[in-house]
Structure formats: C-alpha cells, structure tokens
Design a protein that fits this description.
alpha/beta, six-stranded parallel sheet, seven-stranded mixed sheet, about 40% helix
Length: about 450
C-alpha cells in the first residue's frame, strides 16, 4: 500500500499535554520519534506547543487528543499528505464522522483512530511504536492486530525470542484502512511469508472472506478471534468499536477462506512463524529423532492425536544408520541414545530426511540428562536448514531452550520447549498443504 510506504514522515505531538485517561503524553511523543530514527527518509517533528508555519511529508503520525488531532489532520490533508496514522483514540461519534468526511474529501488514507502503536515496516525502518526500544528484527512473518495489548504482547515475544517480522499493523477502530486493505497489501509483500491476525470484528464479512481466500492461495493466514463469548463480544464493542458477530459463522467463513484458526496468543505467534519459515507438510508422515525417550513418546502421542502419522522408515534408511551406529533404535521415534553428539545427529538426520516415507521431521535435543553440548547442534543445523521437507525442533525445558534458541531461529528452524507445540506447528503446516491442494486440485 503506497500510503504506508512513505518517503518522509511527520510526527505531530505535544511536549506538554497530558491527557487524563487517554494516550496523549510527552513520553509517548518522544518514544515515536526515537523509534523512527532508523527510517530510511527524513523525519520531521512537530510540537504543537511551538508549531511551524508549514509542514510537508508523505505520512503523518498524530499523537494528540481528539480535537487537536482533527485540527492537525485537516491541516496535513490540506498540505497534500498521503496518509495519517492516528495513534490516539477517544473520538466521539461526531468527531469520527468529521474524520471520515475529511478522509473522503481529501483522498487521504487513515490508519486508526486508536491505532495505539501504528505501523511497523522493518524493510524501510518505519516504526511508529511509542515505547522506546520496541525494535523488532527483520523476518518473514507479518501481523495485523485489532488490539494494542495483543499487538504489544506479540511484539514483546518476537523481540525477546529473536523472531523477525516484516510488517506489523495496529488497525484500531478501522475508520478507513482495515483488515481487507492490509491483507491484500501483504499478499504483494515479497518479505512476508505468512500473516498472523488478531480480529475482534470485521466491517464487511463478505469482502474479508474474499480477500482472505485470495491471499491464502499464495501465502498462509492465521487468525486468533476475540469476542467469541457474550461477555467478550460486549467488551470488543467498547474496545475497538467492533461488531463481533456469530462465532460459528465466522469459523465457517475462515475455513472456507483457508485461514488457519488458533486459540491463543502463543499459538498465533508459533503457527505464523512456522508457516513463514517452513514449507507445507505434504502427506502427514512424521519422523521423530530424539536423544531422550520420554519427550519422544509424548511427541508420538501428540502426532497421532493430531491426525498425522508416524513414518515407517525405509529399509535403506535403517541400513544406512546401522552401518555406522548399530546401537541407534531406528523404530520411529528414532532413539539416538543419551550419549549422542552432533555428528550422530547429523548422520541420522541426513538419512531420515532422505527417506521417501518421511514427509516431515521433529527433532528433539535435550542437554540436561544427556551428553549433548550446545555447540553440537551446529553440526546438524545446516542439514535442517537445507531440507525441502518441513522440520521443527524441540529443546525440552527452559534454560536449555534459551541456550539453543538463537542457533535454530537464526537458521529459520522453529524451536519449542514442549513436543506438543512442535506437533501443533506440523499440524498447521499440514492444514495449509490441504488448503493449497483444495485450491489447485
């Protein structure tokens, strides 16, 4: 969307106004300016306590109370700016109508009001988040969220775990730019491999389904829906002026559109990241390669519960491993034994990934209670990264996962602390393969 790919940015705020029960504060203003320091073009800062005679730019970010916001929105629109990101909310129905009329009259695009943290595009350094230090790395996942709180939680998780993003949009009240606009825009973004959404309601259900169907034909879309209970729906209406609608109807619509639905923030992040980094799982036969027994057993149980299958390894694969490591149990789950090092993993995984009976691989590496060292994973990560079949990794526990996460994430390998999450990722990869199969059959 050209409006959100500016060559120049203007930030309008106040160094003195503090809005009680609102989002106008000098710290917010300063935070936006700070996070725009990596933007590829010029950034102008307008403090309304000492306003300039004239302003110019492509995109304006407004962080002011409603009445001041409307005054500056009209001024920026008259100056020929292409787009507004309205960070703050709290507009009355009359003020919203005035804002909508301004958008139509001047042909300017509006993200918001109540966009809270606005828009991030890591490809051009555009970042209108108001908390200093909210600086995600670049990666192939993009998100569209209708809640500042949910979006902030996703951003915080992706930053702390080193999970890169391409674009991140906080749609707020969707007075103009909405989910449909952003979905279709992300469809054309070469940096986006998968799209995650938090939705409380949609303006035009039919248009949303049509857009989602168009997008899922070329890249996966994952959705977390808020407001599915009566109480949640009531809160959604007051939260972002959303009409939540029937959850049953929404669920059917998502399925028809090929959108993968998830139940939690963690699942939204994990599923979107897996789909962004790994190819679809075609066939559903999973090989499990592990240096510990218990987690491998739980993994196998979860695979079966998910409706996937445990792969039966080809005789050639078994012979290839037995010739070098006769003690390795080659009955899936493959047991490498607790003394396995990186070279054993590399050899066995090479054989398993080549097996024609294997569609995807879940690797389990435990450090504690085993002899595997953190540096050992460097021996086999390249093979996982080169695989044309989907691969995910499990490092059971907390400390061990933190030790190894950066190595796997840096190679585009999704990594989890529990086998259940790894299987859920594989299930999503399989579901998307079925979406594509249905589309192109």
């Amino acid at each position: 969307m050209r409006a959100l790919r500016p060559e120049s940015v203007v930030v309008v705020g106040s160094s003195t106004i503090v809005e009680e029960l609102g989002m106008t504060h000098p710290d917010l203003f300063r935070g936006i300016v700070s996070n725009l320091r990596h933007f590829r073009g010029p950034v102008s800062v307008v403090d309304i306590d000492a306003p300039p005679d004239s302003i110019e730019g492509d995109l304006v970010v407004i962080a002011l109370p409603p009445e001041h916001s409307l005054e500056w929105a009209e001024r920026c629109a008259a100056a020929g700016m292409r787009a507004i990101i309205q960070i703050t909310g709290g507009f009355t129905p009359e003020q919203r109508a005035r804002y909508a009329a301004l958008v139509v009259e001047h042909g300017i695009r509006l993200l918001g009001p109540n966009s809270i943290m606005g828009y991030i595009d890591t490809g051009i350094g555009l970042n209108t988040a108001f908390n200093e230090g909210v600086e995600p790395s670049r990666g192939p996942a993009s998100f569209i969220v209708q809640s500042g709180g949910i979006g902030a939680a996703i951003l915080d998780t992706t930053i702390s775990e080193g999970l890169g993003i391409s674009r991140f949009a906080f749609v707020g009240d969707k007075l103009d730019i909405d989910d449909v606009d952003l979905l279709l825009d992300l469809k054309e973004d070469p940096g986006t491999g998968a799209i995650g959404m938090y939705v409380e309601g949609v303006k035009e259900g039919r248009l949303f389904v049509e857009a989602a169907s168009e997008v899922t034909a070329v890249k996966p879309v994952v959705a977390l829906k808020g407001g599915i209970s009566r109480e949640g729906a009531r809160r959604a209406r007051s939260h972002t002026a959303s009409v939540s609608g029937s959850d049953d109807i929404f669920d059917i619509a998502l399925r028809e559109a090929g959108v993968i639905r998830v139940p939690s923030i963690r699942a939204l992040i994990d599923t979107t990241m897996a789909l962004a980094h790994q190819p679809p799982l075609q066939g559903g036969r999973i090989a499990i390669v592990s240096n510990v027994g218990g987690p491998a057993i739980l993994c196998a149980d979860a695979v079966v519960r998910a409706g996937l299958g445990i792969a039966r390894l080809d005789r050639t694969t078994i012979s290839r491993v037995a010739g070098r490591y006769p003690g390795v149990e080659m009955i899936d789950p493959v047991d490498l034994i607790a003394d396995a090092d990186g070279e054993r993993y590399r050899h066995v995984l090479g054989a398993v990934l080549d097996d024609p009976n294997v569609d995807g691989v879940i690797v389990i590496n435990q450090l504690k209670s085993c002899l595997l060292r953190p540096s050992d994973v460097d021996a086999f990560i390249p093979a996982l990264a080169r695989s044309e079949k989907p691969v995910v990794d499990v490092v059971p526990g907390g400390t061990d996962l933190r030790l190894l996460r950066e190595r796997f994430v840096g190679a585009g390998i999704p990594v989890y602390g529990d086998p259940q999450y790894a299987v859920e990722a594989m299930e999503a990869l399989h579901r998307y393969s079925l979406v594509l199969e249905r589309r192109y059959a």
